[in-house]
Amino acid sequence: MISTAQLAKDLKTALKSCKSRDTRLEYTLFAQFKLFAQSLHIMNDEKAGIPRTAYRGVVENRPHGDFILFLTPPLEKLKSVFHL
Asked: Domain holding 52: CATH number?
C-alpha cells in the first residue's frame, strides 16, 4: 500500500491528496516528522529514534477519515527495511 500511495511534496499537498487516495509524505529527519505530526495533531515524540506509533518508521493517519496519509522515511530506505 505504501509503495502505491501517491507521493506528496509537502504537507499541504498531502492533505489535499488524501481526500481522494492513499498518500505518502516522506521525512528524512525526525525534526521534519515532528513538524508534520504537530500539524496533524498526532503523537510527535520518539523512542530510540523511532516515532511513537510507527512500525519501522511508518506512521499511518487518516486526517479525513477514508484514505490513509503515510508519514514515511524515503521509499528506498523502506525497501531495504522491508526487504522488497
From this structure: 3.10.180.20
